[in-house]
Structure formats: structure tokens, C-alpha cells
Amino acid sequence: MLYYLFKYLEEQYQIPGASLFQFSTFRAGMAILFSLIIATTYGKRIILFLQKQQIGEIVRDLGLEGQKQKSGTPTMGGLIIVIATLIPVLLFAKLDNIYIILLIVTTLWMGVIGFIDDYIKVFKKDKAGLKGKFKVLGQVVLGLIVGATLYFHPEVTMRDHTRTIITEQFTVEEVGGKEIKSTMTTVPIFKNNEFDYSNFISWAGDGAKEYTWLIFIPIIILIVAGVSNGANLTDGIDGLAGGISAIIVVTLGVFALVSGNIFLSEYLDIMFIPRSAEVLVFIAAFVGALVGFLWYNTFPAQVFMGDTGSLTIGGIIAVLAIVLRKELLIPVLCGIFFAESISVILQVGYFKFTKRRLGEGKRIFLMAPLHHHYQKKGYHESKIVTRFWIIGIMLAIITVVTLKIR
Pick from 251, 240, 305, 277: which is nearest to 84 by CA? Predict the structure, then answer.
């Protein structure tokens, strides 16, 4: 909103300093500052409200050290993240930008699903919460909305590569690429680090590319559901999901900065995505909200994010990666989420397999998800979280480096 206000003031009254709001980097700086203030200042009030309403976590006895002391800790703290993200975005972002609209819809959509899940757990005293099929349905619908919008919306484009040509006068000129509709995405090792989803269907003939959406949209749905559930599984000990998510989102912020700037993208020889620079404002607000939330969520946690936070975080990260055309880097960048999800899949699968074959279920890990395995081994949760953060930083660095691997 302030962007439009200061744009009007600059055009009509030439007020000094109003032009600063035309720069996405300035508005991103303001967004992260505001979100930090909101999360740290009003976060405490939200925690006190949750305590007053007796919205506390019901902890099952899993035999983990320090687990019983967590019982009654306020949950639904994801509201802090949602509020501290959306208010700065509404203040400082261009609200007519298609990517900002998608991210706001994602935040609200996943926030509502997570809130319903937490509400059932707390007020209906049902630890299972919202039935899994309804969670998956919500993720599928969001993936369908995101995939269809990115495929069909006319403002979702990329810039074709600049080409060097020889003119009729035998001079060498560089011809700037045009904005084109494309399902191109970023992938390491491939030539130019790019891959087109239409390659999956191009074998069927020239006209087959028109039906690329039949491949593209289901892939987007799988990514949204996968990352959202991965973040949900990672949220198990104090500060883990919030810290890992902040590292991931900062990395995506680097991608937004270079992919949304024509000069930086050309210098680094990476894909330029028109209008994606505005995503940096959302990312800044989101990072500020996550870091502000960690003020209260690090050990010993004063509040848990609940599914209101974890499902929302996962959904936003997935959509950010897709918007910036870095979704195929998710297995590396979100490696912690991936490992946590795989540990659960392996644990459940192996248990069922051995029970069917041997009559007694066996386990690969002492407990899944993976962070509980290390708790069972006797590691303090602060040490587990810190080491997972370090691994997350290493994965973030590797992700950035892969852009130059051809």
C-alpha cells in the first residue's frame, strides 16, 4: 500500500525521498525490519493470549528426554509467522504483482489448513488433528492453483537469452531476448543449467507442447505437497523447523535478487525472470517473521508453531522455489526436510515389510523422524538443532554453487 502512496506523492508533489519506494531492495529492507518488530514485540502478546485461552500442546509420552516438561506449552504460534509476514507484505509490496498474489494466497490457504488442524488437536482433544486426506486435498488444490496460474497467466514469463548477430553492415550486435511464455526451469549440470518441462512430451509431435500443462501441473502439486509435509515432519524440537526454514528462505532470497535483476542475471549467466524482483519483498518479510519467531521458539521454547506454522512454511518455500524456477534444486536446498521425510517413509515401510515377512516389525531408526533418532541416542536437542542448522547452511551453499556447474 505504501508503494502506491509514495508513488503518487512523488508524481504529484515531488516529495524528497519518496522515490526510494520504487526500489524493491529498499522495500525489502523495510519489510524485514517491520516483520522483526512485529514478531518480537507482538509475538509475546500472542503467546500470552494463547496461554490465557489454554491453547497448549498435548504431548504424547514417547520416552524422550525433557518431553514431559513441554506439555502445556502454547501452540498455534504459527500465527506469529503468518501475521508478521503478511502485514509488511501488504504495506511494502506491489499488490498487483502476480507472484505476490500467489504467495499471499499460499500463506492464507496453508495457514487456514494448519489452523484447523491445530484447532481440532487442542479444542477437540484429538491428537490426530485434521484427517490426512483433507490435508492432502488442501495441498493438491493449492498446487493446482499455483501450477495453473504459472502456466497460463500472461505475466508469468522468462526472458529469452541475449543473442549475438552479424548485421548487414557486418557489425556485431547483441540482441536482447524477449519475454516469452516458457516452462523452462533451473537444473544443475545440464547445458545452461536449464530444462524445459515440454521435453517430457515433445516426442509426441510438434503440437504436443500445447499439452505440457498435463505434466507441469501434477509436478507442481507433488512439490507443494512434498515440501509442506517435509516441513511439518521437521517441526519436532525447539527451533529446528524455524531455523532451517530461515536458511532456506535466505538462499531463495539470493536467487530472487539475481534472477529478478537483468544485469546480475546476465553477468552470472542465469535465467532472468521478469517481475520476480518483487518476490524479494515477500522473502524479506518472511525471513524477519521466522527469525522473530525463533526469539520465542529456541530452547526452551515458549511457543510451538504447530501445523499453523509448519504447513504454511512448507507451502511458502515450495511456491517460492517454483516461482523462481529453482524447484528442481529443492532436494539439495531442502535436504533436511527431505531427510526427515525419507526417514519416516523408510521406517514405516521397513516395519510393515518385516512384520509381513517375519511376523515382527523391525525398525531402521530408533525413532522417526530423524531428529528423534538422535534424541534417542542421547543427544541434547540444542546440539541436534545446531548441527542440523550447520548442515542446512552447507546445503544452501552447495545449492548456490550448483548454478555454475555445467
Answer: 305
